[in-house]
Every structure is written in structure tokens, then in C-alpha cells.
Amino acid sequence: MYLRRRIIDRLSGTWMVISLVTILLLPLIIGVGLYIKAAPVFEQHTLTELITSSNWAPTKGKFGFWPFIAGSLYVTVLAFIFSAPVCLLAAIHLTQYASKKLVRIIHPVIDILAGLPSVIYGVWGILIIVPFISGYLAPLFGQNTTGYSILAGGIVLAIMCIPYMLNMLMEVFKTVPMGTREASLSLGATYWESIKHVVIRHSRPGIVSAFGLSLAKAFGETIAVMMVVGNRVLSSLNPFDPGYPLPALIANNYGEMLSIPMYDAALMFAALLLLVIILVINLFFRYLIHKTQKA
Amino acid sequence: MKRKNIEEGIFKILSAVASYSIIAILAFILLIVFVKGFGALNLDMITKTPKGGFYYGGEGGVLNAIVGSIYIGLGSTVIAIIIGAPAALYINVHLIRFKKAQNVVRYFLDALWGIPPIVYGAFGFTLMLYLGMNASLIAGIITVSLLILPIMVRSFDEVLCTIPKGLHEASLALGSTKTEMAYKVMFKQGFSGFITAVLLSFARGIGDAAAVMFTAGYTDLIPVTFDEPAATLPLAVFFQLSSPIPEVRERAYASAAILTIMILVISLVARFVSHRYSKSNIN
Lengths: 295, 283
What we know:
Strand order of the largest sheet of chain A: 1-2
Radius of gyration of chain B: 23 Å
Helix content of chain B: over 70%
Order of helices and strands of chain A: HHEEHHHHHHHHHH
Number of helices of chain A: 12
Distance between the termini of chain B: 50 Å
Largest interface: A-B, 87 and 87 residues
Helix content of chain A: over 70%
Number of strands of chain A: 2
Oligomer: heterodimer
CATH topology of chain A: MetI-like fold
Structural class of chain B: mainly alpha
Shape of chain B: globular
Strand content of chain B: under 5%
Number of helices of chain B: 12
Largest sheet of chain A: 2 strands, antiparallel
């Protein structure tokens, strides 16, 4: 009986370790897998050439990813500009001013927003944002557009970022000790002054991390952006023009990539690039959070 | 009135507007998806597979995609449970006295959570080619299970780490092995978290499009064996929406409504169940 329990314990313990180690090695395995597939493209092009060149002609073996990287950066930055102020204000309201009732309502709201599949945001974007841009917003600026644009991608992405960013910001503000705020209030500061000078200052690393992680999240978002962004290579900085972010490029071309030489390697390189960028951002800002949580 | 009081007033209103607008956005999205979707929704949509000429506005429904999504969701969740639950238990049982190791592991898991589905999709695709498989149900299941593993581990872990250490010590003092403690005490005590983790992963598995796009393929038939391709609901929405024919686009809205309802139901069940099971916990 005792022996049986020992054996079971040993077996299950081993399985636990194997599972955990596998999960932790996952990014490495994915990275190596993608690198092996992407290797042929490195034989003919240098890394800087791939990233900075704008010459995109897969049939001629020219793979310059810069327009796609720029497209990704553009929608991501737009999404950040739209979502950051809203999330910051909402997080302040929900942690400092709001009634218990509102906070109780907002939690499931955040969960559902975070849980809605990407494709649903895409559908909503096509139904609402795209016609809104082509019908109202663009004429207002004297522009002519189909609505499928960088701007549409930015707005849809901004909304997808909200639950993620808001949740992290609320966590950050909750860790500010009540005492420091009360000290500020007792010195005659208004509520807002205490928030501005004490709460926000105290949680600055947390805010920066929340923003950084949301940027990384937005950078890798695929389906929803791809549905509204127009998928044409970025030609100008006009937000009413269509763009072509990196994830959309991968998703759109997986069908034909096997028929053009080197194309699959180039696209796997794009996936590897995404992985590395996002993993580095994540590791950096998570480290910042871990460090400040300890202090 | 003093300037600082005016400033206070302005920001109080602004921030209240911001937080209510988030509720409004969710309501707006759901309203649009449901209003548009219910217009085209009928019984055929959820009980029939696509018939001839479906993609030109002919008869049929998206049962193939609904079933495909559920298969992929279930299959990947099962794999994620088999690998994820022991991993989460290990962090909270074997590593309990090594705070630093726990932190490092959680740090990497959090970072893993951030990897976008499209990268998993691309990796799944290379893995599939490497193993000589075609786009199939099993390839989709494996890819999605990699995607949901970090979610599974981290959300189960969230609840496990709140379990008081005394319970742990009490069980060891009674002579249980670590495995018995993990599965008979910790697992039971953290059951609400386990259920939440499972349902969260399942919902993610159903709703994800970028990872299955490369790996599961698309077909009008309901898959019978693991090596057949499988349609998925998000891709059904995506493909039908890119059609120029209005009837087909209408069906995309209906499919989107079906998907949203499925996700909402799972999310509601998760809330209800986790609430119910955490009631009987020892605190």
C-alpha cells in the first residue's frame, strides 16, 4: 500500500515537472521552430535588409517588411492614443470615486469585453466604424475613402485594448496605500490633487507597464484589424488610407505562400519577428511590474 | 469657487464619463451584433450544414462550423487540462517553499500569455508540415491547446495561490504524499478556480480564428475523424463576410450572433459555477 502510494506520487510528480517545463519552454520551442522554417530567407537577405527595406515583391524574391512593420506600428499607436486616456480616467474613477455598485458591474463588463472573440470586434467595426468613417468623418476632413483604413483599424484595436489596459491600471491603482492618499487629503489637497500628485506618481511604473503591455497586445492582434484596415501596402501617413499590418500579412497569405519560393520562409520570419518583439516587450514590462510590486 | 475645485469637478465628470462609456461600448457592440444577427438567424442556420450553392445564397446553415468549433474547443481544453492543471498544482504544492522560483515561473507564464494567436498559428503550421500532416482537426486542436495553456495555468494558479498554507501543512501532517495533497486537497479547494480556468480556455478555444486559420482548414462537412479538416465559427463569420453577395453577408452576421451567444453563455456559466463552488471552501 505504502509502495503504491510512493510510486503514484513519483509518477505524478514527474508528470507535473514535465508539464511545467514544457510550458515554460514553449516560447523557445516556437522560436526555434519558426527560425528553422525562416532560415532560407536569411541566406539571401540580411536581417536589417528584411526589416528596413520597403521593396516588397514576393514573386521576384524581394522581401522588405518595413511597410508592414510601419503599418502595424501606425495602427498600434493610434489605438494607444484613443484608448490610453479613456482607460486612465476610467481606472481613476473606478478605484477612487466610484460606488461599490458600479465597480461590481464593471468587472463582468471587462470580462465580457476581454472574452469577445476578435472576429466579433471585426464584424462590429465593419458595421459601425467603417461606414462612420467613410460617411461622416472623412467628408468632414475633405477626404475620400472607403472607410477601410488605418483609422478604422486603430479605433477597433483601441476598443479591444480597453479591457486589458483598464484591468491592469485598476490593479495598479489598488496597490497605492490608502495612507499616502489620506496624508495628502489631510494637508488640504482636493481629491483630484491627491490623485494627480500622489496616486499617479506612486503608480507611475505600473502605468507605464500597463501601457507597454497593451501596446504589445495591440501589435499582435490579427483578425479584427485585418477585417477593417484595408490590407493594402501603406503608401502615405494619411490615417484615412488603408494599411497592411504584419499579422494581417501572415494571415492573408498562408494559402499561397507554398506556391512561391521563399515566400513561406519570409512569412515565418514575419511570425518570428512578431514573437520576438512581443516577447521582449512583455518580459521587460512584466519585470518592471514584478520589481515595483516587491518594493 | 477656487480653481482647484473647478479642476476637481471637471476631472470627476470626465472620469465618470470614461467609465460609463466602457459599459456603453459593450452594450453598443452587443446590440449591433444581435440586431444585425437576429435579422438573418433562423433554425436552418444552426441545424443544417451548408448545402449546394450555400456561398451564393443557397440553402443550409453553419452547423459544420458550430460543431467544428466545439470539437476544437473541447479537444484543446482536454489537452490543456492534462498538461496545465498538474503544472499549476506543481507551482503551488512543490514550489510553495521557494518563493523566488514561484515568482520566476509566474513571470514567464504572464509573458507567455502575451504571445499573439497568429504566432501560435504559424508555429502550428510549421509543426504540421514537419510532421507531414494536412490541415486537420487534430492539428487545430494541438495548436489551440498551446494557445490556451498559459491561460489555463495562470487562471487556475490565481485561485490556488490564495489557499491558506495551513491547509497544506495539515494535510502533510496527516501523512499524505504531495500528490495526494495536490489532488485531494488543493484541487478540491481550488475547484472553483479550476472550473473558471477550464471555461475561460474553452471560450478562447471556440473564439480564436488566427490560430486555426492555418491548421484546422475549412470544410462544409462535420469532421468524423481527427485527420479530417474542420470548419470553425469565427472563420465562418470571416469568410462569409468577405463575400460580395448580401445574403451571405447576412449569414455572417447571424453566425457572429451565434458565436457571441455561445461566448456569453460560457462566461455566465463560469461566473455562476465559480461562485457556487467557492461557497463551500474552507477559508
